Amino acid sequence: MLGCYDAVQAADYDGVAFPSTADLIAGEIREVGTFNTTYGVIAQNQTLPDNVQVGNTWDVIYIAINRANYLLQQSDKITDPAFPKLTTQAQARALRAYHYMNLLGLWGGSTQGYGYDGGLGVPLRLTPTTAIGTETAAIPRSSEADVATAIRADLDFAIANLTTGTGTTITKSAALALRARFELRMRKYADALAFAKQVPATTGFATAAATGLTSPDAIWQLAFSVTDQNSYAFYWYPSPGGRNEFDPGTTLAAAHPAGDRRLAVNVAASGTTLKYTHTATRDDPFNVVRYAEVVLTIAEAAAQTGDLTTAAAQLNIIRTRAGLAPTTATTAAALVTDILLQRRLELAYEGNYWFDLRRTNTVQTALPTYTQTFRNLFPIPQRETNITNNLIAQNPMY
C-alpha cells in the first residue's frame, strides 16, 4: 500500500510534474528556466508526441496503476483475519480511479471536453503484469465511456468500504470528493451535486486562512519529508535552494478581484508563490483534494441544476474566506462564471484550471492563441504508438 502511494509522489507525477504540466498549458505557470524542450513547449501549447516529460508522466501513471492492480490481485490471497482486506483494496481502487481520471484528463475525451459521444479513452488495464507474455502484450485504447465505467466502479467500492475523514491516505471523504470531481468533469451535474454534498465539512474551514495549505482545507494531502522530497519549491524559487523553473502566469495576478487575500499567496512579491516555499527541506505538502473544491463543486452543480440559492451560498463561503463581498450574480450563467473564477484563484498551481477549461469547452475562449483545437488533447507518447505498431492509436492530427 505504501508503494502505491509512493508512486503518486513520484517527481513525474504529483511530486511536481502532473499538476505543473496542466498549469503550464493553461498559462497559469510561466516556464522561465532551462527545460525549454519539455516544459517550455508545453507552456507554448506546441507539445509533440516525443516530448520527454509527457512520456515520463504517462509511464509513471501506468506504473502506479500496475502497483494498485498487483496489490488487488495478491491481497485477495490473504486469509489472515487481522489483515484489513476491504479497506486496503478500497484505497487501491480509489487510487486506480484517480490515475485513470488523470489519464483521461490529459489524453482522453474530445476536443470539446469530456463525456461526449465517441470520446477517446486510454488503454484500460485492470490486472497486473506479473510476467512477460500475454500479461505484457499491448492492448488498444478503450473508449472514454468504458474507462469512465471503471472509474465509477472503483470509486463506488472505495466509498462503500472506507470511513470518512481526512489525512495522507484516501478516506471515504476523499473518494466522494473524487467522484464529485469526475461527475462535474463529465457534466453530470446532478450526480456531482449528490456526491459532493456527502463530503463532511472540514472543521474550521470557513474561518481558516485562504492559503490553500491550511489543515482544515486538506481532505487528501500527500506528505513529503526531508528524506522523501518533492520539487515544488525547488522549481518555483531561485538559488539557494531552487532553480526558478516556474513563475506565475502573466494573467493570473490581474484575475484577482480587488482585496482578494489569495493574491499575495498566488503571486508573491518575489514573483513566486507562497503555496510551496520549503526550498531547504523540499517537504511542502501537496493537496490532492481540498474541501474548497468540494464547496465550489456544490456551488457549480447547484447552479447548473437550477438551485441558485444553494449555489450563491456555497460560492459566498469561498468569497468570504478570500476577503470578498458576497456575489452579486443572480442568474445561473453569472453564478457559474464567478464560480469558475473562484476555482481558478482558489486552486491555483494545483493542476485544475486546464481541466476546467476543457470540461467547459472554453480553451479557445480563455486562450485565444490556441487555435489548433486538436491540441486540447495531449499527444499519446511516441514510444507507445511505435512499440505497439499503432495498436495504441495516436490522438488525431498529431
TrEMBL record:
It comes from Hymenobacter caeli. It comes from the Bacteria. This is RagB/SusD family nutrient uptake outer membrane protein. The keyword Membrane applies. Belongs to the SusD family. The keyword Membrane applies. Residues 44-184 form the SusD-like N-terminal domain. It is found in: Cell outer membrane.
